[in-house]
Amino acid sequence: MRSRGGMLVATMVAGLGLGFTVTNIGFGDYAELNRMFTFQDLRMLLAFAGAVAIIVVAYAILRVRRSPARIHAGVIPGAVLFGTGWAISGGCPAIPIIQVASGYLPAIVTIAGVVVGIWLCRWANARYFQLDRGSCGL
After folding, report:
1. Among 30, 75, 78, 84, which residue is least crowded by beta carbons within 10 Å?
2. 138, 122 in Cβ contact below 8 A?
């Protein structure tokens, strides 16, 4: 399974499974996401809290130790922009792909926004900020 083709197949199967699950629990529906972002429906908050709890237990079992990393100047504004875009568009970068696959074509605008945003981030970083690239691959 360590071959390039094997990893591609495994990634595709995992992506299809994620898309199927996300669609079936309602996280791909804009109206549902809006209710969750405005705390009219607490499923997303509970799902994220459950995910954090699971990873805390997994890290404890595996004895994973991470030292705190330095937060560079772009993290806070980037997080605010990401969260704002997520709330406006009804999804993180993966959700619009699921929405398009489900037939919700306005999500194409969100995908275009993600692509333009990545391009603008790289351009602004190269021209003005020269922030540490870290692991995000600017």
Report:
1. 84
2. yes
